[in-house]
């Protein structure tokens, strides 16, 4: 049942993600051509800055979902109702706080980022970004409840489907008016419409959303205490994520220009397809995994963890190889050869893409188990990233910013965080041996595949792309051999074979 729900959630999310990706690339093309590189740079910069606004959420959604797994599994309606009532109050305060924080960040933009001052009306644009961000918290309690209850597909249909409609109207606005104000107001109207849909379809008549909470005071205090601890821990994780994932745009705009923000953002948009896809999988499976962990032994949890790692490292290898050989051709055909970067810079960026996929198993297990106590690691990650990136940016420019992210990812994401998680999950004083048992063989397989691809690099580089048909042919040239080599090498692993047998069994059973 858990596997079926996870697959259903993932299929729904994958379809919506595919539509959003296609529309995202098209609207970026229209935006650059209609609005120019400076406004595009402002749009990308402000989009990243909204992540700092979202720090006000404190990680409440994930923390509350992890607290809800057990009551939902055991039908403890009074506890569920109380948790949702707490969320209602908390998100009202967050709505107001985001507006205030937006004003503070707007002042910082004015004094510290000179490049945005050349754009007229820039602070009105920022005000709309802030309001749109705060408005998303109006329906946050509904999405949290549904996600925890393994109904993430319903959330995705409302949010993702709404985003598809928003983008379509934004494209029309850009084509016929070239107005950034109207572009942002369409987003406002879309978010408000999503709130109304959540309230009517999800909220009305739901047994968990009663105003009457029949729970003794001691149980209320226990829930508050647990939620407070998990929110505190998740907040530090959110800070670390923002400092790593969103600071690069700030540094590029500070040390380079808005045009470079557009170039860098174009590559990141391609790479973020992978991030979005992985987030879809994490969101789809986390609730089921939370239910799984309640009833399974350490031996069974280790077995599924090994399977996760071998699958995701295989996928990371496939994605990274294809991205490396194809992304420059794609960027050149999409928005022009003037927006491409060197192969060296692309290779550096691909390292972070690889890590973003390999980290997925530990992210799933952490969110499902609620082990968010590694609160200092995200701060370490953020400090490392900013410090190294600034120093190297002054010396070597854009490569230094990317290297700073790589170093922080390797130290914290690939080592410190997984070791902490598995020490808690399996109650081990030294989890190093267990963790390296999970990743050592799959990483060796990955190196073998990369070695084979290195031998074939000259033949791939010699293939020139002039048309989109040429790009499709090159895509087939790169992807087909890489799939065959990956399957041939990784299928020697029993966990790889077992995982696919499970998936095939679930599909055939339907």
UniProtKB/TrEMBL annotation:
<feature type="transmembrane region" description="Helical">
    <location>
        <begin position="476"/>
        <end position="500"/>
    </location>
</feature>
<feature type="transmembrane region" description="Helical">
    <location>
        <begin position="161"/>
        <end position="186"/>
    </location>
</feature>
<feature type="transmembrane region" description="Helical">
    <location>
        <begin position="434"/>
        <end position="456"/>
    </location>
</feature>
<feature type="transmembrane region" description="Helical">
    <location>
        <begin position="12"/>
        <end position="31"/>
    </location>
</feature>
<dbReference type="InterPro" id="IPR050833">
    <property type="entry name" value="Poly_Biosynth_Transport"/>
</dbReference>
<feature type="transmembrane region" description="Helical">
    <location>
        <begin position="308"/>
        <end position="327"/>
    </location>
</feature>
<keyword id="KW-1133">Transmembrane helix</keyword>
<keyword id="KW-0812">Transmembrane</keyword>
<feature type="transmembrane region" description="Helical">
    <location>
        <begin position="258"/>
        <end position="287"/>
    </location>
</feature>
<feature type="transmembrane region" description="Helical">
    <location>
        <begin position="51"/>
        <end position="69"/>
    </location>
</feature>
<keyword id="KW-0472">Membrane</keyword>
<protein>
    <recommendedName>
        <fullName>O-antigen flippase</fullName>
    </recommendedName>
</protein>
<keyword id="KW-1003">Cell membrane</keyword>
<feature type="transmembrane region" description="Helical">
    <location>
        <begin position="90"/>
        <end position="113"/>
    </location>
</feature>
<feature type="transmembrane region" description="Helical">
    <location>
        <begin position="402"/>
        <end position="422"/>
    </location>
</feature>
<feature type="transmembrane region" description="Helical">
    <location>
        <begin position="339"/>
        <end position="358"/>
    </location>
</feature>
<feature type="transmembrane region" description="Helical">
    <location>
        <begin position="119"/>
        <end position="140"/>
    </location>
</feature>
<dbReference type="GO" id="GO:0005886">
    <property type="term" value="C:plasma membrane"/>
</dbReference>
């Amino acid at each position: 049942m858990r596997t079926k729900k996870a697959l259903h959630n993932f299929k729904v999310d994958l379809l919506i993600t595919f539509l959003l990706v296609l529309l995202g690339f098209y609207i970026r093309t229209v935006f650059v051509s209609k609005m120019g590189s400076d406004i595009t740079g402002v749009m990308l910069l402000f989009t990243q800055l909204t992540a700092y606004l979202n720090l006000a959420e404190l990680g409440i959604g994930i923390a509350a979902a992890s607290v809800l797994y057990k009551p939902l599994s055991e039908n403890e309606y009074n506890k569920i109702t109380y948790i949702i009532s707490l969320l209602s109050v908390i998100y009202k305060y967050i709505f107001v706080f985001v507006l205030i924080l937006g004003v503070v960040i707007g002042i910082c933009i004015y004094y510290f980022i000179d490049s945005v001052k050349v754009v007229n009306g820039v602070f009105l644009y920022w005000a709309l970004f802030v309001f749109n961000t705060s408005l998303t918290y109006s329906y946050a309690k509904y999405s949290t409840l549904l996600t925890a209850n393994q109904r993430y597909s319903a959330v995705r249909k409302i949010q993702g489907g709404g985003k598809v409609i928003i983008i379509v109207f934004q494209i029309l606005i850009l084509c016929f008016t070239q107005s950034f104000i109207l572009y942002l107001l369409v987003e406002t109207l879309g978010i408000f419409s999503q709130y109304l849909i959540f309230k009517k379809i999800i909220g009305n008549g739901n047994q968990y959303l009663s105003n009457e909470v029949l729970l003794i005071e001691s149980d209320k205090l226990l829930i508050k205490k647990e939620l407070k601890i998990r929110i505190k821990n998740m907040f530090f994780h959110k800070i670390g994520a923002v400092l790593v994932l969103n600071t690069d745009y700030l540094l590029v705009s500070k040390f380079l220009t808005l045009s470079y923000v557009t170039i860098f953002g174009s590559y990141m948009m391609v790479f973020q397809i992978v991030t979005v896809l992985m987030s879809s999988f994490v969101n789809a499976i986390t609730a089921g995994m939370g239910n799984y962990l309640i009833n399974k032994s350490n031996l069974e949890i280790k077995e599924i963890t090994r399977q996760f790692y071998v699958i995701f490292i295989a996928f990371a290898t496939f994605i990274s190889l294809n991205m490396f050989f194809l992304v420059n051709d794609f960027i050149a055909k999409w928005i022009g050869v003037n927006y491409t970067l060197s192969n060296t810079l692309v290779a550096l960026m691909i390292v972070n893409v690889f890590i973003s996929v390999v980290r997925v198993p530990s992210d799933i297990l952490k969110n499902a188990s609620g082990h968010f106590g590694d609160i200092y690691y995200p701060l370490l990650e953020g400090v490392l990233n900013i410090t190294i990136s600034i120093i190297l940016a002054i010396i070597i420019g854009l490569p230094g910013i990317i290297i700073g992210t790589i170093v922080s990812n390797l130290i914290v994401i690939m080592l410190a965080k997984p070791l902490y998680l598995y020490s808690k999950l399996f109650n081990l004083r030294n989890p190093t041996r267990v963790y390296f048992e999970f990743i050592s063989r799959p990483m060796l397989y990955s190196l073998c595949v990369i070695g084979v691809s290195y031998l074939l690099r000259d033949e791939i580089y010699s293939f020139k792309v002039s048309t989109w048909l040429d790009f499709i042919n090159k895509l087939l040239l790169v992807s087909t051999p890489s799939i065959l080599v990956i399957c041939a090498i990784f299928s020697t692993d029993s966990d790889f074979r077992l995982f696919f047998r499970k998936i095939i069994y679930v599909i055939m059973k339907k």
